Amino acid sequence: MVAVRGRPTLVRICDLAGRPRGAGVPVDDLGTLVTTHEAVEGLGRAVVHAPCGRTFVAGSGDITPVPEWNLALVRTEGLASVPWVIAAERPRPGGAVDVLTPDGPLRTAVTGTTAVTYTSTDRYHPLQQVLQLDLPEAVRVQLRLSRPASGAPVVDAGTGAVLALLGTALHAPDRSCGFAVPLYAAGVLAPDGPLAAVLRRNGATVPGFGPDLNLAGALHLTATSAGPAVERCARAVDRPEVARELDAFGRGPASVLALVGEPGTGRTTELAALAARRAQGPEPAPTVWLRGAELRAEDDSVREAVGRTLAAAGRIVAASQQGAGAGVLVGEPGGANPDVVARLARLAGRPLLVVLDAPEEMPPQLAHRLRRWAAGTASWLRACGARMALACRPEFWERAGALLPPEMLYGPAAGPGQELPGRGVGEQKGEESEVPEPAGRPVSGGGVPGGPGLPGCVRLGGLTGPQAARARAVHGVAEGALRPGDDGHPLVLRMAGAVRAAQGGAAPEGGAAAGAPRRAEVFSAHLDLLSLRIAERLVGGGRAPGEVRRLAARVCGQVHEAARRSLGPGLGQLDRAVFEELFPWNGGWASAVLAEGLLAPAGDGYRFADEEFADWLQGAHLELDGALDALVHHRSTATVVPVPRHRIGPVVQALLLCDARDGSQMLAPRLRRLVDRLAEGRRAPAEAAPGDEHGTGAGPERDGDGDENGDKNGDKNGDGEDARAESLWWAAHLLGETLLRVPDARPYLRVLHALAERVADPAGDDVSRSGFGPWFWRALPLRPAEKAELLRVLLPADPPYTGASGRAERCLDVLAALLRDEPRALQPLLCEWFDDTRPLRERTDGPAVPGRNGGAERSGARSGSRAVPGAARPTVADAAQALLYTHRGGAVDELVEALVRAAHPRADALLAELVPEEPSALCRAVERWARDPREGRRVAAAVYGPRLARRVRGEEERALLRRAALFLLRGSADGSLHDCALALLVRDPVSRGHHLDRALARFAVSGHGELAVALGLASATHPEPVFDAFRAVLLAAPEGGEDVSPAVQQQTLRALAEVGTPAPARRAAALAGEYAARCPGRAREAVAAFVRRRPVRGPAARAVLRPMVTELLRDQRVPFRAGLARELGRGAGPVRDELLDLLLVTERELPVLREALRAVVHTLADGRTAATAATADAPDTADRAGTTGTTRGPEAVGEARAGRWGDGRLVCRIGQRMACRAEGAAPFDQELTALAGELPGLGAAVRAWAAGAPGEWAALAGPGIRRLLGTGPSESVPEAGTPAGAAVGSAEA
């Protein structure tokens, strides 16, 4: 019926002379009064008298007239008035009302509404919907003549809420009744006016119930349900990242938020903190708190549970009003309609929030038809504008979230299922532990908990480092008192703090050798503590300690029995009969257990207050093999209600207990059976179980509505498919949970290898692939090297790299992170992968990106790029090589040692890559290797020392190389090592003078290439001895002699080509010419290469090379000149062009011109420019060729072929020179046509050249060229702009 706060006050309004003008009604906590306009009209100031004797003088600025409704608002201060509840809209006028006049209340009735006229001093005001009061004529006359009665409230006789204010200056044709101005109607018809604002404030601050339920009343009711939960967060540590997401949900359009996390992570606490913020903000918002146990099997949506909670809250409010002695008759409050409460909150812009904590506790029958309940809940939330926040386990949300419309779900900006920042279990490393602690649940879930695929939700992990430190301070737990992972777990911190406080500050007993207890030991200590406290409550004071301990042991036994009994059909809950049997009310057992918070009421029964603690207790009493047989191996399809997935906790705890109690030799076979079950359940993704919207392969339990929504007999095939899907789900989750939570997973490496092979199997299903993603392998409690070996098995199944932002994590990413964190442990291991040729997966879209030398790109990101046709697919070895290169920064010296120890071609190639990238580290390594007595290390020093000497410029690196060279000279009798050592010493200006003579003597014997190059550089400072040695090598034997190897002579000419100082360069050219004259047959290729190399040394070489080339072209025979023409055609740059012009001016022999033509055309086909030629002909070409191979990929070649052919003038000049012979242009025509058949794009280039210079090409166009140009035998070459030439330059297909 009614519930009105306190005793409302009625105030009197007078003028300054003390004459009464009317009455006023307080309507809010700010002291605002509502009265009639006639009561304050004409008053500059009004005097307001409260019943308590206080007075307030309201000036003109305090009065807000509303004459169009004969109303006025008066602002007052200090009257201590109690506001009235303004009645809500009445469906139809009628019913008994009381008119509260100064002379006392008058009982009357509302007969209807009418239109009246209010006459103020300045105009007439027509009023609509004014209430008609059935008053006797005498009373009407008396009230009309009574100024104090103006503004008297007309209240509902049943509720006491104000309906209207009595007006004495209202006129109507029918004078047989009294008139009252309705406040609600006046506010509705002017929603932007001052009266509407006051009425909204009244509804938000003055609680009304029953038919006059308003927002304040709704807040009062909902605070009753959420109050106990809010008290729980009093000692909670602030988690800003969680609060930010929860508050964003309140501002956003989503209707459902799921706070998903493991038991004990603070889900309930965070939702309680949200309810507290909503209740204590500047604009309080209503929050209804529910637990899953409060739901009933017959509920169609959450609306029914909200209605029951509001009804219970109404009874509590009524009882509190009566117990407070306020003197206000409340009556029977009845149940508040949840639709009305939600509508009031929505209209006020403060949507009703329904918090459903632990929805897993819902009755099994309701869980069996969860689909219908979810649909009804979504419909109700949409209809009334309410919102719902759930705190649940991942297993429950995996199913329930899939049954709700995706657009209603809230997910943070990072994406669905994203975990909020926080330190996961085990992210801190224990200094005294060889194996990292288990890393618990990772970022997002699906497959097994934590994997990808959960519907939109906010994931909750452990506390971050600063948060955990604050929590330890709150609970009095010293840093380091708990194991890494547990020291950020809210439940463990709370329990450990309670145990520590009970022990007087001492750390809990037991634990590992490191001194910190495991989580199970904290739970055990907590149980002992609660048992002791309950025993103390039962015995009271004055009992012997031994008696208390014996009673505590009995209590502990009863608690264990309660855990065993809760494993039955109750699914974690004790019914009242069992609870009273174990903890009878007689003797205070039940009261003591409930008072200590061990168990708590839940629906029609009782549950353990802490879910994770309950899982641990129940797992100790679970018959493990029977549970695995029922859930995984021999699951029965006849089960009426399947075991809910969220009941996985006790089974996991039983598996962990098996590891702790019986050892890995008992647990490993059970885990291997789970892996085998996954293999037995292999199926294609297309056969996904019904309801498996996320492709996890684990469809939800059947919703049990088949008897009403389908065939009553059910679909046997569908039942079998659902049973198999459930079996796979349980196998995957139990396996994943257990392997993540065991203290050390090393005893289960065989199981993990079998699982990795199962996941990497291309024929596998999505259950394994999505359930055991990269997050799982990263979180395993293993050493980095052991994780890396498992990831090696998985790499071929890794998805290809896409480069897209927000892409899913890959095993390659986890491996890269491990390598960054532990480079010294993983570098030798990755070097062992260089023989692993298993291919990686390739992209089927995106641009083609070539590998380098058949390998992966440096960054490792290209390993999944779309393959170039004909190119080798990247392999695991390529990935290892790329990872070592990319993540070398943490331990370069160790990487170099690992590579040289590997003695593999890939390791050699990577070392060569590091020469220009990490010269300092390589210099240090060369110095170490030179001192090493092992022959392989010395050889490595001899190989990489000269390569480094070409690049290093710092004195520190040079000093390292000098020391390395001296060690090689002293510590080995190998001549080749001495050659490299002397090359290092001669290259260095500091040591050159001391070792030049020895180097020259050694060169005369060996002719070593590195030593030759070093001596060439020494010619700038010691020209005479160097050139004498070179002359001895080049001119020592006549042509055809075998005293000196041709290879040695070629190395000598190469060294001479590197001489850059002008004076020695001229001597080098003269010596090369002398060698050509002495031994033309042997010198042909070497001297030609010398000529090709010299132009890249700069314009100063022109003066050296031109005389030499002129002499060679004049004196040498055709084969020699042909080789020279080939090398000149392969070059680039102005010096090359000038020398080639010199050849064309004097040359008439067809073989020579043919070689020049082929070389020039091939150079154009390769897109060769002066810059590329300079790079290719640089001194370190051999060094580069031994490491990376070709430097240009297919992109560069394709670009050259498409548009880098040039204008063809040089080709035309060669053709003109060839046409000067007796054969005419026929040889040129034949040669160019043959080249066009070899080189794609040349035909289009010839057409472009001919269109650009038609006159010059007309004389050269034979039958073959005309076919290339697309003209007949008698047609002329097309000119630019003609139809035939319009297509010139287009690329060939």
From TrEMBL:
Residues 413-451, 682-721, 842-872, 1170-1200, 1270-1293 are annotated as: Disordered. InterPro entries: P-loop_NTPase, Peptidase_S1_PA. SUPFAM superfamilies: P-loop containing nucleoside triphosphate hydrolases (SSF52540), Trypsin-like serine proteases (SSF50494). Residues 856-872, 1170-1194 have a biased composition (Low complexity). It comes from the Bacteria. This is Serine protease.
